[in-house]
Fold this protein.
Amino acid sequence: MDRREENNLGESLFEAVLETSIDGILVVDATREYVTWNQQFVDMWGLPEEFLQKDTERPALEWVLHKLEQPDEFVEQVEHLYEHPDQKSRDQIQLTDGRTFDRYSGPVVGENGTHYGRVWFFRDITDLKRHEQALAEERDKYLTLVEESNDGVAIYQDDEFVFANEQCLEILGYDEDELIGTSFLEIVAPEDRD
């Protein structure tokens, strides 16, 4: 394969990765002009294509800001990263429509240490956050049910107690720090172990 074919292959692979990513991707140069982006980025933010054709990021940035619950923090982080081109960043962004994006950014640096710009990745984690919230609510209901139960409830895992509600501790006559981490046989009277 000659040099031209290698370059074509490299460009084709880059374009395929860019467009098949589940992340919205934006690459900007050292002057903050857009180098490339994928359709997922445009779709996630609902950006009009003409905003991406400008010489500056300002129109697209202003478009995005009205969609954020905390636009000042968003801009502050963007500015901080441009002022500190070696830094990477990862955080979560809450949008006014209820969506949550995971935002990651890192520098684009050549082999010789030259900074060519920055890459931004955005992933919609709204469903994940909703599932986490639902799971936390279910856990809280379960814990309330177990803690308020008149029955003793314990969880025994890997040959030791890992949880016991107050009623179980009272029935067994142990404090939590005495019971948790012990094996079942340790609480059985020696004459009854067989």
Summary: The chain has a mean pLDDT of 89.
